Amino acid sequence: MPGVIAIPGFFFLVVLAADEDGNSGMKMYSAAVC
């Protein structure tokens, strides 16, 4: 269970750090999770 949450969470941090625009990172995160 924790791994399922940790992996998307880690991916979110990576996307947010790599993407200057927080909104774009959020959209990518939502698309990956949903």
Describe the protein in words.
This protein is mainly alpha-helical. The chain has one domain (2-33). It contains two helices and no strands.
Quick description:
With 34 residues, the protein is mainly alpha-helical.
- What summary fits the major beta sheet? none
Q: Per the principal axes of the C-alpha atoms, what is the gross shape? A: flat
- In whole angstroms, the N-to-C terminal distance is 17 Å
Q: What's the total number of strands?
A: 0
Secondary-structure element sequence? HH
Count of the domains: 1
Strand content: under 5%
- Rg over CA atoms, rounded to whole Å, is 10 Å
**Averaged pLDDT:** 67
Stretches where pLDDT is under 50 for at least 5 consecutive residues are none
What helical percentage do the residues reach? over 70%
Q: Give the count of helical stretches.
A: 2
- Main structural class: mainly alpha
Name a few traits of the molecule.
single chain, 34 residues, mainly alpha, 2 helices, flat
What is the topological layout?
Blueprint: H1 2-18, H2 22-33
Helix pairs in contact: 1-2
